Amino acid sequence: MNHLLDNANCPQHSAPLVHPDQKSKLAMRNRKNVIEHKFLRTCIRKRLQSLVSLILILLITLPVYADKAKSAYNVGAKAEAQNKYDAAYEAYRQAYALKPKNPQYLSAYARLRSYAAMEHIRAGQLLRNSGKLPEALAEFQRAVEIDGSTPLAQQEAQRTADLIRRQARHEDATGSTPQSPLAKMAADVAGPVELVPISSSPVNLRLNSNADQAYKTIAKMAGINVLFDPDYRPQHVSIELNDVTTREALQMLALESKTFWQPVSANTIIVASDSAGKRKELEGNVMKAFYLRNVSTPAELQEAANTVRGLLDVSRVQLIPAQNAIVLRGTPDQMVLAEMLLADIDKPKAEVVINIAVLEVSRDRVRTLGVSPPTSGSIVLQAPGSGTSTGGGNQFPLNTISKLTPGNFLVTIPGATLTTLMSDSNTKVLQNPEIRALDNEKASLKIGDRIPIATGSFGATAGGVSPLVNTQFQYLDVGVNVDIVPHVHSENEVTLKMSLEISNVSGAQNIGGINQPVIGQRRIDHETRLQDGDVSLVGGILEDTETQALSGYPWITKIPILKYLFAQEDKEKHEKEIVFAITPHIVRPQELTEQNLRVVDVGSGSSVVLSHKELKTAKPNSSTPPAPPPPQTPVPQASEPQATLPVPPQSTPPSTP
User: pLDDT tens, 521-551?
Assistant: First the structure.
């Protein structure tokens, strides 16, 4: 108890006293540390935010930049599928500019550059033919900008510019330039005479008289004049016509009376008997030069001339190959038919772009496994009492034979070799060229080398064959050789006649003292019909070589497991396959319009006569007031003639209910 009281009375241990200045310094230090920590935390947070933002920006922009070329290519492919060649060209050009080393982008850009240029050339030709020269020049210049290597665009642009300048000079001419009288007369030469009836009303006629009287009646009704050949003898005809034009009435009357009529002026015709002599005498002739735009050889020009000559009986034909022109002389109907026929056959040849993918895959596998055991040994005899083997065929004295021991024989056995080897190699060779070919024209592609081959004659000698005499060299194409002849059908189909060849130098052979190369060849002659864009896989050029060798001790090599301890097995397998993928794309199809497919009436078998379309005058509406009847003109009567002149129909008043 006392002890406890003592402890209670003892002074307690208190915390050490701190000076007030030290407390303020400690508080300031703590406050400073807190501020520094907050500042550091704020700086670190801002830097982390900046770093995260930068990473996000990179993650977003890098794929966009990386896929920008691919996106442009996809846009171009979509535009090409819709035949929007300008948009496809711009997209492919952008993809190629971003990645110029990409073969896919390069191929698409080169292909669409040609397509877009040809489209602008075709549009410019259509505009120029319609007389819009400035618009045509703009199209040709755009084609030159797209593909400056196309000579056709430059030629068409130059030609159109010359036409514009010539037209401007002609408009600005004031007549001060002297002109020869012949040139003036040539400028005033009229074309073929064409009948223009005054009246275009339908003809309704019932007549029983001579043919000359019928001609005069129809001529009076149409307001034209009629002349008769002095040698013409009219025949009696009976004809009835209802609601026909003047030209149709004249043709029907000519058919009935076996006559023909020929316009002399715009309102006058002459009638004669239908015979070859009279037609040659009275029918007028015209002359015209036809310029063919799609002829490339004199043979094609001659073929067009023979077609016109054979079908239209045009005998006066002159060819001008330098201008791709045909000059014809014949009747106006023959010239019209010649114009139609040449327009039908003078069309640009169809064109095809053939994509050829040559894929060559080879695989070589080699496996060597087992022990190569010793297959031979040697025994060397040493003479007794000597440390070396005897020389000269193991010679030693006979009195030492009894001293021979096993130690005098040295046996040499080579060591065994353990081999474990396996190799597997794959080779892939891809070639993807493109060929653009015309219809029925041969296109060739040769990728490889030209190997010289010595040719000549040999001379016989006593020892055999002498080397080549008068040696000459020929060159053979070795590598990938492709010959294709396309033929474009309707409905976007193409027939391809192909010759595909893969060749290489497989060795050499000495002939007459000259090493000649041995050419290995694999060839396919193939013909197929494909749709536009279809892929034809031509394979089957397969070479498979397998070699197996086993070397070791006899009989033991037949045991499945021991053969690897006492023998060595070698296996080699070589596989080589070549596949061709042929894809045709029709660039310019065969152009056929309704005008090309329609049937045209050309007359009878003895003469060429065209029938012309004429618009009949519509009958007036019944609601219009009636027109006064025209004055009746007396018509000369023959035996029982009855002619009905066209009279406007009388309108009936509406009935009242």
Answer: 878 888 889 888 888 877 656 677 888 877 7
Bridge-partner residues for 443, per DSSP? Answer: 484
For residues 219 and 225, what is the distance between their CA atoms, to the nearest angstrom? 6
Q: Outline where 348-504 has alpha helix (H).
A: none
pLDDT digits (tens, 9 = 90+) for 99-156: 887 878 887 888 888 888 888 888 898 888 888 888 999 988 888 888 877 777 888 8
Judge residue 575's burial from the number of C-beta atoms within 10 Å of its C-beta, 0-12 exposed, 13-18 middle, 19 or more buried.
middle
Alpha carbon 517 to its chain centroid, in Å, reads: 38
What single string gives the DSSP state of each residue in 48-76? HHHHHHHHHHHHHHHHHHHTHHHHHHHHH
**Tokens linked to 542:** 């397969």
Token pair in block for residue 151 = 């000579």
Whether 13 has a pLDDT exceeding 60, the answer reads no
* Nearest partner of 435 among 355, 534, 501, 502, judged by Cα: 355
Rounded CA-CA distance 592/648 in Å is 45
CA 137 – CA 140 distance, rounded (Å): 5
Is residue 589's pLDDT more than 70? yes
Q: Which of 162, 124, 167 is nearest to 142 (CA)?
A: 124
Please name the residues in contact with 107: beta carbons below 8 A apart, sequence gap of 6 or more: 432, 434
